[in-house]
Design brief:
Blueprint (H helix, E strand, L loop, with lengths): L1 H47 L5 H7 L2 H8 L18 H13 L6 H4 L21 H15 L1 H17 L10
Helix pairs in contact: 1-7, 4-6, 6-7
């Protein structure tokens, strides 16, 4: 379980790095396009000044208005996204369901909160509208401790390793 938690953390951190690289690339491309439009505008403006009749048009319109019209505003860069830490609820759900399928443990921890679908005898999905995540957490804890406390400790080790594998945010100055 510890290795699985570390692996999940490393995978999520790497995916976040890749996503932030893509954001950085898009920001750089937008800035590059803006700079190119500015250069082309400046070239067109200087060439146009040498064409009879164009200079009078250019003199009649402010440089800022022309630049706004043909170049536009500088791009606003998108901020990178921080890594968000998930939960182990889906893992616990899968483990509990497999144990229940094999008649291991007391399902009353889930029945108490109405977390078992009476039609299927399976745990309700975590994202079901009638499911309260606090009730699921309590039921998971009671269920796993009722089987063997080491099961819950294994899940806690998974969560610890997952959290430890994620990058730490930079410290705030003065703290």
């Amino acid at each position: 379980m510890e290795s699985a938690g570390t692996q999940r953390g490393v995978i999520e951190a790497a995916a976040n790095v890749a996503a932030n690289d893509a954001i950085g690339d898009a920001n750089a491309a937008a800035q590059n396009a803006f700079e190119n439009r500015k250069q082309w505008f400046q070239l067109a403006e200087s060439l146009g000044a040498n064409v009879p009749g164009v200079q009078q048009i250019l003199d009649g319109v402010s440089d800022d208005a022309l630049q706004d019209m043909f170049v536009g505003d500088a791009p606003k860069p998108n901020a990178p996204t921080p890594v968000t830490m998930g939960t182990s609820d889906a893992l616990q759900h899968s483990i509990a369901q497999e144990l229940l399928n094999n008649h291991i443990g007391d399902a009353s921890a889930f029945e108490k909160y109405g977390l078992i679908d009476p039609a299927t005898g399976q745990l309700k999905p975590l994202d079901a509208p009638e499911v309260n995540s606090t009730h699921f957490s309590s039921a998971f804890t009671n269920y796993f401790e009722g089987i063997d406390p080491s099961v819950k400790f294994g899940i806690e080790d998974y969560e610890d390793r997952y959290r430890d594998a994620l990058p730490k945010p930079p410290a705030e100055p003065g703290k």
